[in-house]
Amino acid sequence: QVQLVESGGGLVQAGGSLRLSCAASGSIFSLGVMAWYRQAPGKQRELVAAIASGGNTNYADSVKGRFAISRDNAKNTMHLQMNSLNPEDTGVYYCNAWISTMTGQYDSWGQGTQVTVSS
Predict the structure, then answer these.
(1) Which of 25, 44, 59, 80 is the most buried (most CB within 10 A)?
(2) What is the pLDDT of residue 71?
(3) pLDDT exceeds cutoff 90 at 64
(4) How big, in percent rounded to 5, are the helix, strand and coil portions of the chain?
(5) How far apart are CA 8 and CA 43, in angstroms?
(6) 100 CB neighbour count, 10 Å cutoff
(7) What percent of the chain shows pLDDT beyond 70?
(8) Burial bucket for residue 37 (CB in 10 Å: 0-12, 13-18, 19+)
(9) From the CB of residue 99, how many other CB atoms can be counted at a distance below 10 Å?
């Protein structure tokens, strides 16, 4: 069984910064693409940023230049540095990863961490 656990959310004023972390644990053979999604109240879950195992990244237009995604393949972790936060960044942030185990491949999700940006 594999598990993704997010940390680092919280309340911050507009213009501030937060750093989210995601740790994968369990019987992991390898991690494929990892990503951060977010869901604001009353809205659909949306992709924020993604990073391939080789380091290629992709960002939503709304966060380009403000957010930076990174990963440590040796530690099975992923991070999201969020700068210049604004109230529109408020939501629950979810870690997502394509995980390979000895029994198969799984599209795995964390439980989410709340990010609230006050104006």
Answers:
(1) 80
(2) 98
(3) yes
(4) 5, 60, 35
(5) 22
(6) 15
(7) 100
(8) buried
(9) 23
Torsion, Cα 55 68 97 13, to 10 degrees, reads 170
The rounded distance, in Å, linking the Cα atoms of 116 and 78 is: 20
- Token pair in block for residue 63: 């966060």
Residue 116, classed as helix, strand or coil, is strand
**Mean pLDDT score of the chain:** 97
> What single-letter amino acid sits at 2?
V
- In this prediction, residue 7 has a pLDDT band, given cuts at 50, 70 and 90, of very high
pLDDT digits (tens, 9 = 90+) for 11-22: 999 999 999 999
Phi, psi of 34 (to 5 degrees): -120, 150
Per-residue pLDDT at 1 exceeds 90: no
The residues that bridge with 45 in the sheet, in sequence order, are none
The number of angstroms, rounded, from the C-alpha of 86 to the middle of its chain's C-alpha atoms is 17
- The pair of structure tokens assigned to 64 is 């380009």
Return all residues near 78 (Cβ < 8 A) that are at least 6 apart: 21, 22, 24, 34, 36, 51, 69, 70, 71, 72, 95, 97
